[in-house]
Write a structure and sequence with these properties.
Elements: H1 3-32, H2 35-62, H3 76-104, H4 113-140, H5 143-167, H6 175-203, H7 209-222, E1 230-236, E2 241-249, H8 255-273, E3 276-283
Parallel strand pairs: 2-3
Antiparallel strand pairs: 1-2
Helix pairs in contact: 1-2, 1-4, 2-3, 2-5, 2-6, 3-6, 4-5, 5-6, 7-8
């Protein structure tokens, strides 16, 4: 399955179901007066927002590079993610404030059958959504779809926390305020993960040992002698990835021969890994200052 198709499919299903779950959970929160349930509802809506990013990112990834944006427009996905993280932080702090106020006034929620039914339905639906996203992620190889699956799993776990609180409501008057803080912390953690992932990509990433080993393996399929690939640097533009690294060649090899070697490797990397690479040639006996 194509990544773009998987992203659209998973994102659309996620948005529809999450908005529905948000509506019934928020309604149940208002009816029961539960801050924890209303916070959990916003946690669910945050998953819907992240699914919008999945679709938005897929749309940007399919847009071709132009004169003003030679590496495409994919980094708009990172900007959108940062905006979402900021919104989540604002929502979380609002619920923390409300939860603390409820604890100070010793207020409690009036949980009933409605809250239990809505919470159980949320747990089941969110786990099914997580499994669906994991399935599509495996079929398409899309890390974004898999990440959205983990968002669903996190929401299922937060709803499980709410359910435990409901079952113990008769023993602890403060359970709703405390759970409101717990769910708000989960929101803050989700915002932190989204923010750090986006910032890491903007600042620059390490290529990773797995990618480096794949490059070594591909080069060995072309040449039976060591070219000593090193100094790997990757530039992630979301819709495309640019890789630069160095290889060493014998001093006797001509410029034309060296160019042919580098071009063959670049074309193979593009074919097998969908990564554009630029290779710098060095004499076999050349040593960098930091080597």
């Amino acid at each position: 399955m194509e990544r773009k198709k998987a992203s659209y499919l998973e994102g659309t299903v996620s948005i529809i179901l999450n908005i529905g779950l948000f509506a019934i959970k928020y309604w149940a929160g208002i009816v029961s007066g539960s801050i924890a349930l209303m916070a959990d509802a916003w946690h669910t809506l945050s998953d819907s927002i992240s699914s919008v990013v999945v679709i938005f990112g897929a749309k940007l990834a399919s847009k071709k590079a132009d004169k003003d944006h030679p590496y495409g427009h994919g980094r708009w996905e990172l900007i959108s993610s940062i905006i979402i993280a900021i919104i989540l932080v604002m929502i979380a702090f609002g619920f923390i404030t409300d939860s603390i106020s409820q604890l100070k006034t010793e207020g409690s929620a009036n949980f009933g059958t409605l809250a239990i039914v809505v919470t159980v339905v949320s747990i089941v639906v969110k786990e099914l959504m997580a499994q669906y996203a994991f399935f599509l992620g495996r079929r398409s190889g899309s890390s974004t779809v898999k990440a959205d699956g983990w968002h669903h799993r996190t929401d299922a776990l937060s709803s499980l926390v709410i359910l435990i609180g409901i079952l113990f409501k008769d023993y602890f008057w403060w359970i709703d305020g405390a759970l409101g803080i717990v769910v708000s912390i989960l929101l803050l953690y989700a915002a932190y993960k989204i923010l750090m992932e986006s910032v890491d990509k903007i600042l620059g990433e390490d290529p990773g040992e797995e990618l480096i080993q794949e490059i070594h393996a591909l080069i060995r399929t072309l040449y039976d002698y060591d070219l000593y690939p090193h100094h790997f640097h990757i530039h992630n533009y979301i819709s495309s990835k640019e890789l630069t690294f160095h290889i060493k060649i014998q001093n006797s090899i001509s410029v034309e021969e060296g160019h042919a070697i580098a071009t063959a490797i670049e074309e193979l990397i593009d074919e097998k890994l969908s990564v554009k690479s630029t290779i710098h040639l060095e004499p076999i006996d050349f040593a960098h200052k930091n080597d």
